[in-house]
Amino acid sequence: MKNLDNYHILQVKCLGATNYRPARVKIISERFRQSVIIPFTNDPGASSPTLHTAQEWLENKGHVIIGKGEGKNCYYIISDTFVSLKK
């Protein structure tokens, strides 16, 4: 088997607005089995505001993002930084 690199996979979902809360973004760390919910920021220039919000937040927390992917009703961000979301 070919030697494969190991990466930190983060699942990103949009939580729509409710009667009581505005839209939010949920980031789930598959490695650490943790999640955070962050405020949604609407950037008119972003092709995917949900992904943009998560990427910006993760980069501000020190994650180095090297890729992305799309799943059913979610996105995946690939990072080579193995740091807890709760740090």
Keywords:
about 90 residues; mainly beta; 5-stranded antiparallel beta sheet
Quaternary state of this entry equals single chain
Estimate the helix proportion, in percent. 10-25%
The assigned structural class equals mainly beta
Gyration radius, in Å: 13 Å
Strand order in the sheet with the most strands: 3-2-1-5-4
Written description of the protein model:
By secondary structure, this protein is mainly beta. It has one domain (8-79). It contains one helix and five strands. The chain has one helix at residues 49-60, and strands at 8-15, 24-29, 34-39, 65-71, 74-79. Strands 3-2-1-5-4 form a five-stranded antiparallel beta sheet, with helices on one face. The chain starts with 7 loop residues before the first strand and ends in an 8-residue tail after the last strand. The model has no long low-confidence stretch (mean pLDDT 91).
What's the SSE blueprint?
Elements: E1 8-15, E2 24-29, E3 34-39, H1 49-60, E4 65-71, E5 74-79
Antiparallel strand pairs: 1-2, 1-5, 2-3, 4-5
Brief description of this entry?
This protein has 87 residues and is mainly β.
